[in-house]
Amino acid sequence: MGGLVLKLRPHEELMINGVLVENGERNTRLRVKTEGANILRLKDALRPEEATTPLKRAYYIAQLAVSGQLSTLEAGEILTDALQSAPGLELDADLSECVARHDFYQIMRALRGFALADRTAPAS
Predict the structure, then answer these.
(1) Among 70-74, 112-116, 118-122, where is mean pLDDT lowest?
(2) How far apart are CA 35 and CA 38, in angstroms?
(3) Spatial distance between the Cα atoms of 73 and 50, rounded to a whole number of angstroms
(4) What one-character-per-residue DSSP string does 93-115 give?
(5) How far apart are CA 118 and CA 49, in angstroms?
(6) How far is the C-alpha of 27 from the C-alpha of 92, rounded, in Å?
């Protein structure tokens, strides 16, 4: 049985195709069977005012594409410009390929350490 499996903590929030969903009182596992669904965990999301550096802006643009708030073509163009304006950043071949394929999940994954580094770690 295929699909994306999400493991959610109690009260964890996520967006699925632009709809805000909150988990209940217990840990939950969800299987998303629809290919191409736009899914974004809110714990991984930046607010617009947090996108203060070129890498954070690139992450935010990828986030908008993942959440379905920005078209993939538009996001790809803006993302290319944002990444090229990052001082001292040389795009590696993998990241450039992700931008060309519009693989915004992988772009967010690659930039997550830079974009979310200044957040405090959640309590366990």
Answers:
(1) 118-122
(2) 9
(3) 24
(4) HHHHHHHHHT-HHHHHHHHHHHH
(5) 14
(6) 37
> Does 31 share its domain with 58?
no
**pTM score of the predicted model:** 0.80
Q: Does residue 33 form part of some domain?
A: yes
Instruction: Look at residue 91 in the predicted model and tell me its pLDDT.
Output: 62
- Phi, psi dihedrals of residue 80, rounded to the nearest 5°: -60, -45
C-alpha to C-alpha distance for 43 and 81, rounded to whole angstroms: 26
8-state DSSP, 2:
-
Residues 31 and 53 in one domain: no
Q: What is the pLDDT of residues 41-77, one digit of tens each?
A: 999 899 999 998 888 888 999 999 988 888 888 998 8
Tell whether 9 and 57 lie within a shared domain: no
Contact between 40 and 25 under an 8 Å Cβ cutoff? The reply is: no
